[in-house]
Amino acid sequence: MRSAAPPSIVLPVLLVLACGDDSGSTGADGAAGTLDGPDIMLAAATEDVYSVGALQGEDWETFGSIRAVAFDGTGNLHILDTQADRIVVVAPDGGFLRTVGGPGEGPGEFRSPTGMIVDRDGGYVVTSMNGLEILGAEGEYVRSVGFDPFQGLPMGAKGVSAGRVLTTGVMRMNRPEEREESGIVPETEGRPIEAFPLDGSDPEVLYTAWVLPDERDEGTLESSSGVFQMPPPRAFAPGLHSEVMSDGRVAVADSIGYRVKLIGIDGAVTGVIERPIPPRAVTEDVQDAERERRRARHDELNAQAERGPLSFRYGSVDDMTFADEIPVIDAIAVDWDDRIWVARHDEMGVEAEFIDIVTPDGGYVGTLPADGPRIPDAFGPDGLLAYIETDEFDVRSVRVVRLVSLDR
Hints:
globular; 2 helices
């Protein structure tokens, strides 16, 4: 879950609209307003629109597990509750419109939904254990699309590109002849972004992202105790961040440096957006701080994992390994106007994040400060931003704000 929205106050946020030749320039002179130049800080004004989600309330507003949220072109908000196996649709004023789906095996019903795409006309593609469920703008059933579990089932959805659902999460069964003695499904090479056609034809790999070589020992299955021993954790390995744009291209960040690649619908790299911001070296002090930060969470994960029928135990934090550098980019997102929001550390690699806003052609809009709006869980029309939140009582809710202005 991404960070919660800040309070609705007017913050100084500078939005420099990308226009003219200067917006896309990255000249060697490093002039202000270019990706080679210094940060241009933005100041943003936001306002509350509504919040939905309650501990006690109407059935539609009590959420079990919010997996995804998305806006359509009219500003309706769609909330996927994977515990209730349904989608709740909320009007632009926060009022209830309808529910879509529900638990079951029939047409238009969901079996363990794992992801959701909502197009601008309001139609749905829902990923589930059954494959894909395609629904119309009112939630009416259109068709189901199944896939061979040996070829893979999409467990989430980044978006639709050229009639295909793109995902970085796939559940794949291994055929008997491929099964190793450990019973572990062999991993695919690299970090693929896979495409699952909406007509049910065979999935394919759109693009294979770079992966830092892993020097950890592999996990081993201890059949006598029924415990699968995972390797020690690894810190600061670069993430795979990807978002689908309205024209079907995919923005991908998979490296240690500041580099966002634009992948075409054919899988080819069509452009690269870069800034000369170096990663920070991982020192002994950084390692000690990271171990301490992870200890409590590590113990909690082991306690949860050991309660399963086939128990997993995560390797010791004391034995964790580290990449040599802290990746510059923490996350990326694509807003309603196809601008790319790039969340990054500052030059020292500390936790406070800045967010660069850039255009697909490399135009630098400006940078949101650490106390400005964060990357939302969904962008909508007219500046709408949705944030999934959980309070101290574990109540799930969605807070919607509007980005009123971005100014220098």
